[in-house]
């Protein structure tokens, strides 16, 4: 379905919301319903009495009034029996507010639809509560209540007034008498009336088979993540979830929620633009009313880029580090590689441009070659997304030469693939993050250029253990010893004799201005 109002609904939760309840108003309270026959009045009573529908005024129902997206949100949320947080006062949509006298009442219902993955709004963070709901959207909703997507896919319709994506749904809705037959064109893109919604929802209820599992909806929630919802708890030990794009299977890793009502599908690479199908199998077919759902995925887009250096001063270095974080439309660090960006430092390409392990864009700037003077000049840096107008620019003050001022242990890796040293020759590699006086990373190239020295780094073992050896340290420590083949700083500790007892040792790495401590277990 290609509409922004994603009516990806099913109604295995809907039955209880249709039963008549002897309280509240009835059709007899509204003057414009007085002409209806008894059978039709009964349908209206079933919807009005439980509060799914209100009148436009105390005495007027608004039979022929157009239904807007705010009204639809309330009806859909109540029919699906979604949890409603009536205390909500702030919406995640920019155009939904409790101060909106006409549509503010719908805020909790709109948020319930979003939480359930039923709608993401229209565009740019807006929901458009005053917007219309069309007849073909209503037909789609009713068919999906019955879990008959696949059957709708086999239907055809020659009516040119119905959008191509909706023709199967409209054809089946008419065949099942969910909507009244029309003389001439169906006019699918015309606004649906409140009368159509009431009678159509009632008719769908009559054909609904309760108790079956249905795949409610699916949507992308990350560059490589799809979330799927079910109307009730699914047996996770039997169910298999798959994702496909046309005839192409998309391999996924599935993570289920604790209650078995939703799952996350993680793909190995970013999801591309296009139409997808999420499907469930492995369950008894007689217990499932809807086993697949269709959705459209948007390709990952960079929506924000920001410099993330802790200060606006960088060291006067041949390899100063400038970091940039690019975010996508899901609020994640963008997966796009450096080939999708261009970086300019003082009018030229940087000395290096790469991504770090956290997904940040890393610019290595040769400040010394930029003809700048310490503590006086500024270095202009610009990063922009290729084929986009998105740009970030900042001028960094040129500081003093880099000084190793802060050490942060990153992680410990044991050569025996365990979590402690056990046998003679076992080594623990302690990876380090090194920072200068401005909080920016110090890298191997700065050591190679003798801007920073490794000889001031001294590790101490506490308590002392003659069988626990620092591989190299102090004045014997060279740059090649401090950094691995990937340019990552680390120290190594080696076990030289079999220990008599279990013990834990603290390894403290000292520099002239900082120190860091980690624990290494010996068994």
UniProtKB/TrEMBL annotation:
Signal peptide positions on this chain: 1-24
Protein name as it appears in the record: S-layer homology domain-containing protein
Any Pfam family: SLH
Domain SLH: 93-156
InterPro entries, sorted: Cu-Rt/internalin_Ig-like, SLH_dom
Keywords for this protein: Signal
This protein's record includes keyword Signal: yes
């Amino acid at each position: 379905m290609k509409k922004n109002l994603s009516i990806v609904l099913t109604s295995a939760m809907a039955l209880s919301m249709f039963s008549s309840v002897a309280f509240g108003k009835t059709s007899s309270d509204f003057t414009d319903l007085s002409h209806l026959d008894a059978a039709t009045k009964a349908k209206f009573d079933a919807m009005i009495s439980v509060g799914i529908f209100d009148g436009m005024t105390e005495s007027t129902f608004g039979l022929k009034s157009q239904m807007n997206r705010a009204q639809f949100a309330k009806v859909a949320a109540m029919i699906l029996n979604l949890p409603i947080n009536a205390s909500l006062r702030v919406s995640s949509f920019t155009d939904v507010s409790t101060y909106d006298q006409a549509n503010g009442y719908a805020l909790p219902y709109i948020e319930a639809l979003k939480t359930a993955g039923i709608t993401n709004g229209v565009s740019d963070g807006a929901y458009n509560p005053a917007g219309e709901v069309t007849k073909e959207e209503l037909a789609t909703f009713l068919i999906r209540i019955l879990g008959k997507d696949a059957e709708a896919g086999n239907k055809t319709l020659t009516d040119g007034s119905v959008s191509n994506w909706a023709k199967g749904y409209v054809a089946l809705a008419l065949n099942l008498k969910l909507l009244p037959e029309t003389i001439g064109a169906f006019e699918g893109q015309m606004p649906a009336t409140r009368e159509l919604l009431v009678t159509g929802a009632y008719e769908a209820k009559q054909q609904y088979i309760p108790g079956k599992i249905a795949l409610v909806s699916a949507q992308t929630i990350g560059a490589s993540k799809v979330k799927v919802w079910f109307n009730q708890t699914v047996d996770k030990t039997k169910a298999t979830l798959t994702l496909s794009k046309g005839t192409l299977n998309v391999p996924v890793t599935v993570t289920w929620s604790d209650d078995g009502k939703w799952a996350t599908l993680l793909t190995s690479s970013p999801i591309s633009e296009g139409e997808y199908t999420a499907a469930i199998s492995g369950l008894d077919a007689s217990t499932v009313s809807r086993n697949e759902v269709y959705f459209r995925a948007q390709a990952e887009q960079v929506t924000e880029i920001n410099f993330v250096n802790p200060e606006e001063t960088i060291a006067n270095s041949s390899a100063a580090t400038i970091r940039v974080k690019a975010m996508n439309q899901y609020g994640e660090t963008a997966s796009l590689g450096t080939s999708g960006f261009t970086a300019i430092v003082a009018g030229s390409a940087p000395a290096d441009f790469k991504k770090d392990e956290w997904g940040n864009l890393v610019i290595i700037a040769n400040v010394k070659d930029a003809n700048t003077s310490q503590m006086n000049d500024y270095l202009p840096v610009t990063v922009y997304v290729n084929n986009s107008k998105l740009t970030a620019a900042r001028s960094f003050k040129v500081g003093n030469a880099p000084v190793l001022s802060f050490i942060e242990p990153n992680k410990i890796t044991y050569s025996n693939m365990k979590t402690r040293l056990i046998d003679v020759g076992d080594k623990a590699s302690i990876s380090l993050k090194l920072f200068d006086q401005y909080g920016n990373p110090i890298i191997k190239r700065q050591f190679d250029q003798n801007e920073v020295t490794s000889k001031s780094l001294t590790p101490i073992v506490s308590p002392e253990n003659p069988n626990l050896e620092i591989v190299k340290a102090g004045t014997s420590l060279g740059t090649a010893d401090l950094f691995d083949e990937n340019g990552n700083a680390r120290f190594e500790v080696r076990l030289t004799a079999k220990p008599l007892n279990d013990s834990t040792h603290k390894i403290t790495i000292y520099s002239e201005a900082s120190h860091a401590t980690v624990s290494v277990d010996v068994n």
